[in-house]
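Sequence design from tokenized structure. All designs in this work follow the same two-part layout: the structure record, then the generated sequence. An example of the structure record is given first.
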């Protein structure tokens, strides 16, 4: 966008620093919330604090960063990512910027939320063995070690990752609590307890004895307390009691001996009991945590302990399953539920054929197939093997089905939901309703829990559709509540449905908007922000009109399939009478708009985009009560008329440059706004927004905000939220929801009724069919609760580790809105406890003596053999770590207790390795091979000092028998230094660096072996150079100039100064300047100083001219009647914000003169500071059958007029007559109608303008005949002669005032024929006019493929091809050799050119080597590059 020469100067202290605070509780909290002020005392909080969610995510971030480095992408063997990279930045660095990390972030969040659940659940929050309180160390460690085999077997046996994440989160909660609640940190420990939480943990070395004094009194019961832990005392945890009727059976009273520690803080009743005070380090607030000053140390140890625990999990499950635990795979799942009853024969065959095509073309990471019939359901096929999936599909055949035209549809959906990953889509194909409707509410609850869309493709090919249990309306409900589509078809047009399946596999899209049940004309705003790569619109139903407009006003008629397929940036995914799915690639950011109207039935619209920005949301309640205040996630559906906090998790907000969140809307299924929650607070990875009371009707949640460019964005939660008046909560622990094969178990659930007094019907289902009984019904009064029980019986044949997904649903008999569900898991335990690790003994110790040095280590391999055995549950698998081995392992069956011999071969470049054995319950045993440190490896590479333009580096090299020849150092992947260093520790000063910038260094040793240079491994370091005014911890600042309310690129600059000037900003505009401090490590400060700047308009000069608005864009004139015209245009691209009004003039054109007949002012509204908008203006009365010129001028605030937009049109002779009135042009009425359909003449005065070697410009004037009929100008260009005489390009231009065009990317020295014509809006075209021209001369490239094509004792025959670059410009070739030269003429420039040339060189000496040099020349003997060939005559 051209700019007025405007400058904005910022003067002040740019390195302002602010503090932030959150809590090391379960979740981040707003400490200034009235319900929390007295608990967290924000005015007393000291520094940054951490919560369980942060600790869990941070540990996973560190763990996966190292995991990605250890197991790099195949195309990036030296994968490196900054230590500070966020989770989304890690994902994008590994999988690519366009890959969506939503599933991955959701998997991480699920673990974090399960961690938080330990502070929410009645059975966990009060339990000191979960919370690491009351000195019950044995129960505390047992609770974690008992859960470990459940986590491992859920992964190893059933690949039940949701259950594994849930169990893992609870264990991590207890593990992290130890460091905040015990005196481990106070005892001076700086490392973690490595085996804590794992089977076989031998206990703590020195736990406090029951009668041992461990604490002394603090100065007061509340507030900061130092030195109250007795030196030399045993390890202890604090006692924590409070008044809560539900906690009575769990809490352990503090002993009255006067020497035990309290947890402490304002919520702890024991803080006032002797000895007063406490020891907890949960927060950085002395009000809640007496030992707040040790909070950071405790949090860091909790992160390290979590990371260590995850590494143990990785050892046990290996790489592939570990990726799946975190949903780390690119691509989605193809999940199909297929009705296989007899009536589905034709449809099934069609689906089979198309599924083959999808599998061959798509890159699904997982395939799920669930057949269902009556009464059979399954078996499920779940595989990542495409061949196995296709074999299962091919094996399907139509058969059976009862006489009631209802099948086991809901059972099939349940099985698919259990096996489909989160954030997927399930496609169901059927021609009948479901008879197992008791599963419907549970299926919907599970789909919403997993954020899985369910789409139903319903074939109406029989006349006896039964509503025996569930109806077609229930299919609609399923699709609406999960965000899927209901697609009814007379018969499966599978070729139209297939692209939707294919697209769901290939793309990872975010939801922008969903509207359903559209029964009248609707206008839908579609904000396309800068982070959207492409977006898709799906319209289901039959619209009468459907038009999309981009931000410039360009229209796309979605009802015109041919026009859509012709659009270069539009991809037609699927197009039929009932569904239209189209994608817009690389859309222009800004406000788009979709106008549509249904023909007969209602419409559904789904708008999705591929973007780096997505939103994972949910509802939570603030629970300020003890033991730990936090936001408690809502289980199941939320409650009506309840004030919740909306959990906003912005995925990729840093990469997408999100500027703000301004509101959240609750929107009905038809698109009506029901509630608006304004927000002006800060944004982060996760934050909470206080909601308005929830509406009673179902609604979607839309998040609105802006990216840094000023463009608006919108993201939608695809789940339709259905508020209810009842809740269902799991009241059993994971231990109670588990049993061994052959055993029984009972689970408890709490149903609470907030509606009318009523009986509630209870249903319970699980996909493995372990449920044997359930409380059938309960009577609950208003605002009361009741327990229900579910009985389980595990068959003796069940495999330990099997996980069954359990759904319990309660439905009020009186109120349809009082229905809710709880989803949990039931785990089959091992038959016997096994806490013993497999044994591993190395039989043959390997040796790399003499080869353990970089440079020669690759020339020798080592071999090792080991014997592994497990005497408990038996061996599960044996494998080496890291990768790079060739291995041979004895065959064994799962659960074998026999010795297993394994041998491994690896290069001596790998001197440390593990041979790992994992037993059935996940215990890990290993042999560790350690042959010392590899010599010649760089270590401790770091920047030890930086200056303004220099960095001083230091590194060491492990001892090596091969001397380093040199080092190679690369700065910022740009400049390379090579230098020697012969000492073990080396130093290097790197100069000529830019100040105040992050500098990245890559260092490599180079060894000389047998005369060859061999490069060693790389090492990396980075640091930020200083500013010119050091002294602050923040050495410089990043300034970003953000447009406020209009489109303009964001500009960011680094400076070490305290003032900065932005040049060439937009006039009449508001900008926001963000100033962010940067420290020595290049890390951005957490706080940003924001300054609003308003630029001027009327006083700002561009040279000597006042800044005026630019020309209005896309002026269109529509002749609606014979005496009126409607003008539409968009704001100028240049200085739109300076427009105060528009002036519209209308002129009658007669011959070469014109007469102004109207001059009217239209107020703009453009200066409201929004993105460019469209304007409408009607001009009347006009004369019929008359040529008019319409002009629109922008007028600025100073009254100065900008350049006008112009459109010439002819009014109609009479009002348009519908086409159906006449049948042929022979009737008078038809001839009257056709009078307006006149072809224009050809454009006149076609001439050649500027010519370059690769472009030709043409000039032309409007047609002399019927110029008002010319709407488009057609241009063709073709080469004039030669073998490639064909049409090179065809261009259609909208007729305008710029009557010139440039053809680019042409060949030099080539003659072209250019043709031009004009056409009317109705497609009537003029004759073609033409002209010829040749491009200019340009130096050629080298001749290609100079080679010998035959030789004798005295001659050599040479051949070559013309230069690829500008070959037509060559007029001759100069060929020289020892003792001779010759010039070879080339065809005339612009003429036909042979592809291959030939020259015989004779008179040579036999058995002699010659060097031939061939040089092409153009006019004036200007030579191109020379190519050389050396060959020898025959002896």
């Amino acid at each position: 966008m051209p700019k007025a020469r405007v400058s904005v100067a910022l003067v002040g202290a740019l390195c302002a620093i602010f503090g932030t605070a959150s809590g090391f509780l379960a979740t981040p909290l707003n400490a200034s919330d009235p319900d929390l002020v007295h608990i967290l005392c924000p005015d007393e909080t000291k520094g940054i604090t951490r919560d369980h969610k942060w600790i869990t995510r941070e540990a996973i971030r560190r763990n996966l960063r190292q995991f990605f480095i250890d197991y790099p992408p195949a195309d990036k063997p030296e994968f490196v990512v900054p230590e500070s990279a966020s989770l989304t930045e890690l994902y994008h660095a590994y999988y690519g910027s366009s890959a969506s990390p939503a599933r991955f972030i959701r998997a991480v969040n699920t673990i974090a939320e399960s961690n938080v659940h330990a502070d929410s659940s009645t059975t966990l929050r009060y339990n000191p063995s979960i919370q690491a309180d009351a000195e019950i160390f044995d129960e505390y460690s047992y609770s974690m070690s008992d859960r470990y085999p459940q986590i491992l077997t859920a992964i190893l046996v059933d690949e039940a990752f949701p259950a594994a994440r849930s169990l893992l989160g609870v264990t991590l909660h207890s593990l992290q609590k130890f460091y905040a609640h015990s005196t481990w940190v106070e005892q001076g420990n700086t490392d973690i307890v490595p085996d804590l939480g794992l089977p076989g943990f031998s206990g703590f070395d020195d736990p406090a004895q029951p009668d041992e004094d461990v604490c002394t009194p603090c100065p007061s019961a509340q507030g900061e307390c130092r030195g109250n832990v007795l030196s030399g005392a045993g390890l202890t945890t604090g006692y924590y009691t409070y008044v809560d009727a539900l906690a009575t059976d769990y809490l352990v009273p503090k002993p009255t001996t006067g020497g035990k520690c309290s947890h402490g803080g304002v919520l702890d009743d024991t803080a006032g009991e002797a000895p007063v005070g406490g020891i907890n380090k949960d927060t950085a607030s002395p009000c809640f945590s007496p030992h707040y000053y040790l909070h950071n140390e405790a949090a860091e140890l909790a992160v390290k302990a979590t990371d260590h625990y995850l590494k143990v999990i990785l050892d046990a499950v290996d790489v592939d399953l570990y990726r799946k635990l975190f949903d780390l795979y690119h691509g989605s799942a193809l999940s199909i539920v297929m009705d296989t009853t007899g009536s589905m024969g034709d449809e099934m065959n069609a689906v089979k054929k198309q599924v083959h095509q999808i599998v061959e073309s798509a890159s699904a990471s997982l395939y799920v197939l669930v057949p269902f019939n009556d009464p059979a359901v399954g078996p499920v096929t779940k595989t990542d093997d495409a061949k196995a999936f296709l074999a299962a599909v091919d094996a399907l055949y139509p058969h059976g089905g009862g006489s009631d035209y209802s099948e086991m549809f809901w059972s099939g959906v349940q099985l698919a939901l259990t096996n489909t990953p989160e954030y997927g889509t399930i496609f169901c194909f059927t021609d009948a309703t479901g008879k197992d409707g008791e599963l419907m509410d549970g299926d919907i609850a599970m789909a919403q829990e997993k954020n899985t869309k369910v789409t139903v493709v319903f074939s109406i090919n029989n006349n006896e559709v039964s509503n025996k249990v569930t109806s077609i309306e229930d299919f609609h409900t399923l699709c609406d509540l999960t965000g899927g589509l209901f697609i009814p078809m007379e018969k499966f047009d599978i070729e139209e449905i297939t692209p939707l399946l294919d697209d769901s596999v290939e793309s990872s899209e975010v939801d922008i908007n969903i509207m359903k049940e559209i029964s009248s004309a609707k206008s839908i705003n579609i904000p396309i922000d800068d982070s959207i790569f492409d977006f898709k619109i799906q319209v289901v139903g039959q619209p009468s009109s459907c038009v999309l407009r981009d931000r410039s006003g360009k229209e796309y008629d979605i009802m015109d399939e041919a026009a859509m397929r012709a659009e270069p940036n539009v991809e037609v995914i699927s197009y039929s009478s009932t569904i239209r799915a189209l994608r817009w690639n690389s859309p222009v950011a800004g406000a788009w708009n979709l106008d549509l109207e249904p023909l007969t039935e209602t419409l559904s619209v789904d708008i999705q985009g591929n973007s780096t920005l997505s939103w994972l949301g949910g509802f939570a309640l603030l629970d300020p009560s003890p033991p730990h205040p936090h936001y408690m996630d809502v289980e199941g559906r939320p409650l009506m008329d309840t004030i919740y906090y909306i959990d906003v998790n912005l995925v990729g907000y840093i990469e997408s440059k999100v500027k703000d969140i301004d509101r959240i809307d609750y929107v009905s299924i038809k698109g009506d706004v029901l509630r608006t929650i304004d927000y002006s607070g800060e944004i982060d990875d996760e934050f909470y927004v206080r909601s308005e009371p929830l509406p009673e009707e179902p609604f979607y949640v839309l998040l609105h905000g802006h990216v840094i460019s000023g463009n608006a964005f919108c993201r939608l939660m695809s789940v339709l939220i259905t508020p209810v008046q009842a809740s269902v909560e799991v009241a059993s622990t994971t231990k109670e929801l588990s049993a061994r094969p052959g055993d029984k178990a009972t689970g408890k659930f709490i149903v609470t009724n907030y509606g009318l007094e009523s009986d509630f019907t209870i249903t319970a289902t699980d996909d493995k069919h372990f449920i044997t009984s359930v409380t059938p019904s309960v009577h609950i009064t208003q605002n009361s609760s009741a327990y229900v029980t579910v009985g389980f019986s595990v068959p003796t044949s069940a495999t330990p580790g099997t996980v069954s997904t359990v759904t319990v649903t309660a439905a009020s008999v009186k109120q349809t809105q009082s229905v809710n569900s709880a989803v949990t898991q039931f785990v089959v335990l091992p038959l016997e406890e096994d806490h013993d690790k497999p044994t591993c003994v190395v039989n043959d110790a390997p040796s790399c003596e003499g080869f353990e040095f970089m440079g020669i280590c690759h020339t020798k391999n080592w071999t090792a053999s080991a014997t592994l055995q497990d005497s408990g549950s038996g061996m599960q698998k044996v494998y080496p770590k890291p990768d790079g081995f060739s291995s041979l392992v004895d065959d064994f069956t799962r659960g074998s207790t026999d010795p297993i011999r394994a041998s491994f071969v690896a290069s001596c470049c790998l001197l440390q390795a593990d041979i790992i054995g994992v037993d059935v319950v996940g215990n890990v045993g290993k042999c560790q091979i350690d042959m010392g440190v590899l010599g010649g490896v760089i270590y401790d590479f770091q920047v030890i000092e930086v200056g303004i333009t220099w960095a001083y580096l230091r590194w060491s090299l492990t001892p090596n028998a091969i001397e380093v020849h040199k080092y190679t150092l690369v700065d910022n992947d740009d400049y390379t230094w090579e230098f020697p260093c012969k000492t073990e520790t080396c130093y290097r000063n790197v100069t000529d660096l830019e100040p105040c910038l992050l500098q990245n260094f890559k260092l490599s040793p180079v060894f000389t072996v047998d005369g060859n240079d061999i490069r060693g491994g790389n090492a990396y370091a980075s640091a930020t150079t200083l500013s010119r005014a050091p002294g602050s911890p923040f050495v410089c600042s990043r300034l970003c100039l953000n447009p406020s309310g209009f489109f303009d690129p964001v500009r960011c600059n680094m400076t070490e100064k305290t003032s900065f000037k932005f040049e060439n900003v937009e006039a009449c505009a508001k900008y926001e300047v963000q100033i962010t401090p940067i420290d020595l490590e290049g890390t951005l400060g957490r706080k940003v100083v924001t300054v609003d700047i308003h630029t001027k308009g009327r006083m700002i000069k561009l040279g000597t001219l006042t800044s005026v608005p630019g020309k209005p864009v896309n002026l269109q004139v529509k002749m609606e009647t014979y005496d009126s015209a409607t003008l539409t245009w968009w704001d100028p691209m240049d200085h739109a914000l300076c427009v105060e009004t528009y002036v519209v003039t209308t002129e009658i054109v007669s011959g070469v003169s014109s007469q102004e007949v109207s001059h009217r002012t239209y107020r703009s509204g453009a200066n409201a500071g929004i993105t460019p908008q469209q304007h409408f203006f009607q001009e009347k009365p006009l004369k019929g059958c008359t040529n008019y010129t319409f002009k629109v001028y922008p007028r600025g605030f100073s009254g100065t007029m900008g350049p006008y937009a112009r459109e010439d049109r002819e009014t109609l002779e009479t009002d348009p007559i519908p086409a159906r009135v006449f049948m042929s042009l022979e009737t008078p009425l038809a001839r009257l109608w056709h009078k307006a359909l006149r072809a224009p003449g050809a454009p006149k005065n076609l001439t050649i303008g500027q010519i370059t070697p690769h472009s030709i410009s043409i000039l032309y004037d409007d047609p002399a005949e019927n110029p008002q009929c010319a709407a488009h100008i057609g241009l063709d260009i073709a080469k004039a002669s030669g073998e490639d005489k064909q049409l090179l390009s065809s261009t259609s231009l909208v007729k305008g005032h710029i009557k010139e065009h440039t053809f680019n990317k042409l060949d030099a020295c080539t003659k072209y024929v250019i043709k031009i014509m004009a056409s009317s809006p109705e497609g009537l075209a003029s004759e073609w006019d033409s002209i010829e021209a040749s491009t200019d001369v340009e130096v050629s490239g080298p001749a290609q493929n100079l080679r010998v094509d035959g030789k004798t004792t005295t001659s050599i025959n040479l051949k070559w091809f013309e230069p690829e670059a500008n070959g037509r410009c060559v007029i001759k070739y100069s060929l020289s050799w020892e003792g001779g030269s010759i010039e070879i003429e080339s065809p005339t420039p612009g003429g036909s050119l042979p592809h291959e040339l030939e020259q015989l060189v004779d008179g040579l000496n036999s058995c002699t080597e010659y060097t031939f040099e061939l040089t092409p020349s153009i006019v004036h003997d200007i030579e191109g590059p020379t190519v050389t060939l050396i060959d020898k005559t025959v002896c």
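The chain has a mean pLDDT of 83. We note this feature because it recurs in several other targets discussed in the main text.
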